[in-house]
Design brief:
- With 127 residues, the protein is an alpha+beta fold.
- It is built from 4 helices and 3 strands.
- The chain is globular, with a radius of gyration of 15 Å.
- The two termini are 27 Å apart.
- 18% of the residues are buried.
Length: 127
Amino acid sequence: AVVSTQSTGLWHTAIVVYGNEYFFGGHGIACCVPGTTQLGPPLKQELLGMTAITQDVFEDYLIGLSNSKFHGSSYHLLENNCNNFSDEVSKFLVGRGIDEDIVTLPQRVLSSPLGPLLKGHLEKLSN
């Protein structure tokens, strides 16, 4: 591979729970009807588990996240993105995160031989 890392793609992830799809981007935490984000329907879906967390508790949790780590201005393509959000929310809801390869992909790309060259270009996408 050009950047000395193997991956099947650069992923956008979201969490579907209580009939909504929750995701994080440059405008903060958002929700929509599942499969209707601007990126279109998902290429892959994975059942992460069942939750005992009530919808009210979950919504309060999201408010806390949107006021701290996942507000719109905190979005960063490489360091605080939709995959970090999905991982953290999954851990809260079901006690386990999403696939570690998805969460760690930015760090693996940046630590590759071409990482320093790519970083500047990827940073521009984050703004």
